[in-house]
Amino acid sequence: MALFNKVALVTGSSSGIGFAIAKEFAENQGATVLVCSRNINGAIKALRKIKGNTQAVGLDVRREKDVRSVAKRAVLDHGGVDILVNCAGHRFDNAIWYKKYHQMTDRVLDAILDVDLKGTIHMTRAFLPSMIRKTNRSHCASGVIINIASTPALSGQKEGAPYTIAKAAVIAVTKHIALEYGNQKIRAYTLALGNIATDATYYSMTKRGRKIATSEPAMKRWGSAVEVAKVAACLGSESFSYATGNTIIIDGGKVIV
Ligand SMILES: NC(=O)c1ccc[n+]([C@@H]2O[C@H](COP(=O)([O-])OP(=O)(O)OC[C@H]3O[C@@H](n4cnc5c(N)ncnc54)[C@H](OP(=O)(O)O)[C@@H]3O)[C@@H](O)[C@H]2O)c1
User: Fold this and answer.
1) CA-to-CA dists, residue 65 to 38, 59, 122, 242, angstroms
2) I need a labelling partner for 248 at 20 to 30 A (CA). Which of 78, 149, 176, 237 fits?
3) How far is Cα 158 from Cα 138, in angstroms, rounded to an integer?
4) Residue with CA at minimum distance from ligand 1 atom 7
5) Ligand 1 pocket test target in 9, 15, 171 with most atoms within 8 Å of CB
């Protein structure tokens, strides 16, 4: 119960990795979790599959005004959040992923930047002030921001440049938060993920695509969303109290730096 008495908000927690993080935090770590989806019914549906303290939130991270009102509501309901996980991402799209760099259009690039990068910026910008106020009221606990990126942000990739570009910038966001707010008891991390089996990836790929992905890491398998959630729980706890700004790679040993 490493997150007992903590309040966490996880964007994009109606499915996949975000859902696994919300479930781990609420069911196994004792946190109160704000489960988010663009569609409130999606959040309610997800929340029903989680035991523990949860609250459904309708939230589109592209809409800054809505983000700010969710941040305000979190202060009224819970005194603010202690842990913010930015997991919302533009859905994985084979048609985008398999395009070469020179084929990238502004429309597609903007669509991905709007969710993965600007969504993360909207969230952190809106939640940081109340998170700082909350941590200042506490003696030892820190506020934690966990941003979800991917390994191509570190290694590059032969296709899917819009995702790589957005996620590389997310790493920069984490570093700024860590450096600018470290003296105010805020810690920030990026999780750089490899192939994690979710409906959006493993189950939407061709058999051949899956096989190639399986062969890539040293461990010769896909990761599970639960394996990501366990790391996120650790980072959100005080176990990582003297580490910040880090990029933690979870990819079964493909990109080793
Ligand atoms: N799975 C992998 O192999 C992998 C690898 C590297 C990185 N990642 C990253 O991990 C994260 C989760 O991926 P996943 O595989 O779990 O995919 P997923 O199931 O499609 O999750 C994406 C989530 O983002 C939400 N979302 C989409 N647009 C949004 C918006 N504008 N505002 C708020 N929420 C929005 C979706 O919820 P609603 O539709 O309910 O709003 C959904 O719950 C993403 O950031 C992805 O880029 C995944």
Assistant:
1) 14, 10, 9, 34
2) 78
3) 46
4) 150
5) 15
Residues belonging to the chain: 257
Q: Which of 67, 87, 164 to mutate to test the pocket of ligand 1 (most atoms within 8 A of CB)?
A: 87
pTM for this entry: 0.98
Q: Find the 106 Cα to ligand 1 centroid distance in Å.
A: 21
86 lines ligand 1 (CB under 6 A): no
- Residue of 114, 179, 130, 169 lying closest to 147 (CA atoms): 169
- Each of the 257 residues of the chain gets a pLDDT tens digit; together they read 999 999 999 999 999 999 999 999 999 999 999 999 999 999 999 999 999 999 999 999 999 999 999 999 999 999 999 999 999 999 998 889 889 999 999 999 999 999 999 999 999 999 999 999 999 988 768 999 999 999 999 999 999 999 999 999 999 999 999 999 999 999 999 999 999 999 999 988 889 989 999 999 999 999 999 999 999 999 999 999 999 999 999 999 999 99
Burial code of 47-83, b = ≥16 C-beta within 10 A, e = fewer?
beebebebbbbebbbbebebbeebbeebbeebebbbb
Residue 17 CB–ligand 1 contact under 6 Å: yes
Which atom of ligand 1 lies nearest, measured to the CA of 20? 16
